[in-house]
Specification:
This protein has 446 residues and is mainly beta. The chain has two domains: 2-237, no CATH class; 245-430, Hedgehog/Intein (Hint) domain (Endonuclease - Pi-scei, Chain A, domain 1, Beta Complex). Helix content is 8%, strand content 32%. The strands form eight sheets. It has a 13-stranded mixed sheet with strand order 1-3-5-7-9-11-13-15-17-19-23-22-21. A hairpin with a 3-residue loop joins strand 28 and strand 29. The chain is globular. The termini are far apart. The model is unreliable at 399-403 (pLDDT under 50). Its main location: secreted.
């Protein structure tokens, strides 16, 4: 067994085709286990870890980590903070740990456990076992016959997805008072709700659909045996009122934002495929798709991650923005690093780390419409006087497929080859040698 050990800087470590033991220590590490059954510890820092082939054991540690399991039966613990974990082929064990995690099981019969805070879970293909505990959670078991535990009274509201091709899922500890069933674009009238001999166990199926597509809701942990069909039907939510949190990890503009075009500013929601918008690097580019996610007030109350970031007029500099603007929390905004290079900073980090924006509280009335602008390539567009990113569809999202499939429906999934600028992590922002500033040359080319 080979042993690789990083120092206290940002390390790049690559294992062999044999079983390796790799420790990243501090720093923002890039680790590739290679072949063989590896033991990998990312340590502290925001790490990117690929297990490679073999049955790997991976610990993300502290920091906002991105972990790819690779082929094999892998065991992954994300550790603390907000992690993104991708399983692959094989029967993987994924543990989110603390933080707002996104967990993707991939193929195989996976075991996925989210213990604390808010979680987004996609089981993928296979007969998965999924557990959620404290905090809010969105669970899409994917194809296969899944066992899902929502843990009854602990924490916030849970959302579990049901629809065509989902297989036969059993949902334990569903709370009919606070939990929801997300039915996507299906009409509530397409859902057949059937009681069983136990008044605390009901079955959902599709009218005229595949009999193998069904979901059992079980709240036998509770003494509440007087729930009616109407009360269960009230727990059904569609895409018109609820957008899964994973969708909102994609860059989103709020409706009403004005984007620079060759003909002047236009409200972004009025764009249509083929319309031209100005880009920072490549001049006018046609819109390929404009996708929409609508978030109801109750969803924002239940999950603050769905609430937008507000950048006040002039907060980034004169005319930047030229009016108050709203972005999703994960949206990348163009900034200039102390060395003069252009980078992107997430909107939430503008608020939490740089004090240039504010995290908005949940709306108590009126839904919020987010729009995802896809140009075919990753570009920077000028919206309300601020350069920010369009929708980036990299290998991580294509591998998970779930968030994209909800936006693109049956259309073939597109891809963008590379990020238009580096996207800084929270730790990189804190470690910057000087202040981050808005970029020069704010005015879009005409």
């Amino acid at each position: 067994m080979a042993t690789l050990e990083g120092d206290w800087t940002d390390n790049s470590l690559t294992g062999s085709d044999e079983p390796d033991q790799i420790e990243g220590h501090e720093g923002h590490n890039t680790i590739d286990g290679g072949g063989g059954g590896d033991s990998i510890d990312g340590g502290s820092g925001d790490d990117t870890i690929s297990g490679g082939a073999g049955n790997d054991c991976i610990l993300g540690g502290a920091g906002e980590d991105v972990v790819y399991a690779g082929p094999g039966d892998d065991s992954i613990d994300g550790g603390s903070q907000d992690d993104t974990i991708f399983g692959d082929d094989g029967n993987d064990v994924l543990l989110g740990g603390s933080g707002d995690d996104q967990l993707f099981g991939g193929a195989g019969d996976d075991s996925i456990d989210s213990t604390y805070d808010n979680a987004t879970i996609f089981g993928g293909v296979g007969n998965d076992t999924i557990r959620t505990q404290y905090g809010t959670a969105y669970v899409d078991g994917g194809a296969g016959d899944d066992q899902i535990w929502l843990d009854g009274y602990s924490g916030g509201a849970k959302y579990v997805a049901f629809g065509k091709g989902a297989g036969s899922d059993y949902v334990h500890d569903f709370n009919p008072e606070i939990d929801f069933v997300h039915i996507g674009d299906l009409s509530p009238d397409a859902i057949v709700i059937t009681p069983t001999e136990d008044s605390r166990i009901w079955t959902l199926s599709l009218a005229g659909g595949d009999p193998d597509d069904k979901m059992v809701l079980d709240w036998s942990f509770s003494w509440n045996d007087a729930v009616t069909e109407d009360q269960i039907r009230a727990r059904l939510v569609g895409s018109d009122t609820y957008a899964p949190p994973a969708d909102l990890s994609l860059p989103c503009f709020a409706a009403g934002s004005r984007i620079a075009t060759p003909d002047g500013p236009r409200r972004i929601e009025r764009l249509r495929p083929g319309d031209l918008v100005e880009t920072r690097d490549n001049g006018p580019r046609p819109v390929k798709s404009l996708l929409r996610s609508r978030v109801a007030p109750r969803e924002m109350v239940a999950n603050a991650a769905l609430c937008p970031v507000r950048i006040a007029a002039g907060a980034l500099g004169p005319g930047q923005p030229d009016r108050a603007m709203l972005l999703s929390r994960q949206h990348g905004v163009l900034m200039q690093a102390p060395d003069g290079h252009e980078v992107m900073v997430r909107a939430r980090h503008l608020a939490e780390e740089l004090g240039l924006a504010r995290l908005q509280p949940a709306r108590r009335s009126n839904p919020l419409l987010y729009l995802h602008l896809f140009l075919g390539t990753h570009e920077l567009v000028c919206v309300d006087g601020v350069w920010s990113e369009t929708l980036f569809i990299g290998p991580e999202l294509r591998r998970s497929a779930g968030p994209l499939r909800r936006l693109f429906g049956a259309k073939p999934l597109p891809a963008t080859a590379r990020r238009v600028r580096p996207l800084l992590t929270r730790a990189q922002i804190r470690a910057a040698a000087g202040p981050l500033r808005p970029p020069e040359n704010r005015t879009p080319p005409v």
